Task: structure prediction
Amino acid sequence: MEDREIDNYNKLEISTVTKNSDGTQFVSVGGFNHISHIRFEFSVSELYETRLKEVGVNSNDKIEFLNIFFRNKFIFNNRKIFKLALEFAKCYFKFNPSFRDKIFENKIKFRLCEFERIYMNNVTFNEYLEFDNCLFFGKAIISKCSFNENVVFTKSTFHSNCLFTYSNFEKLGIFSRAKFHDKHKNPTALDLSQAIINGQLIFFDTILGDYKAFKIDSDSISFDKTISEGDVIPMQNKRETFRIIKHQLLQQNNVIEAEKYDKLEKQTLLYETYKNFKIKNMSNLFLLLLNKYSNNYKTSWLYALIFTLSVASISHSILSISESNDFCDGLKFIKLLNPIDFSFYSDAHSGKIYTVYFLAKISIGFGIYQLIQAFRKYR
Result:
């Protein structure tokens, strides 16, 4: 494919105005047969004034940018309100597009585009915003933005952390088939903990794993810095993000996917409790560990089966010190596994053995319950 160096607006290839079947009009900048490398600071408003008016483009027409490598800054305009509808296809942005302190009145679409980094601050989108099959190599910081219409990240890949800090979703936020991992397939972060969700979030076939998070006090200056810069994610933000996603999926009756995020939420809580360990939290830590190793937070019947058989085997071994219980007696072991069989009490005559037997029955009963819970995870 041919590469073209563009150092001013006059060298840009611009099509004639084309009318769609629905009556809307659009004009194309660039082309699919070559890559246009724009090396100067690019302004849409300046392009409109210098070139697009000449070919009859008006403020209601859509502008398509095709196969363009923006090697310098990309600016929409120098005013607060931006009215043009834009679509970008196979474009690369070396610098962050100037999404800052703007109100976008029309649709903005990016398809098969790549971003070194993207930062949006104090932006209002009154119409549809779409990132379809896009790549985000650096951090995506979306701060204090208002999505008054649907915002879409379908099939997009985030190779670094993505944060929606104090941003609000009024309608649909669609993350269908989005991927959150770096080039080595290590999980990257999605932080929705500070977002305001008035509409719904869609997570269909989204790849979001157990990404790294750190112990940061919510009252510290470091916390304020990290939720605005996104270098690291606090553990409480990670846990809240998984809770939000779980809640959204349950509202949509997607129990199967919700179980995945329920597990991630509890795993995060376990790690968070461990990192903030205090004597008064010991019972919480014990319960979280017990739920992890007894059925992996209701997700594994195999964990539950191994847990139950292990507890039964250890208990059977301890009870074998009693004359009334032979370790090699398989029937005794089966009776021990039966939560409603208490025939051992009629044979044993030691208070300590009674206590061990009683605790064994409780533990085995708990293991059986956890086994049932694991089988009912999709209830």
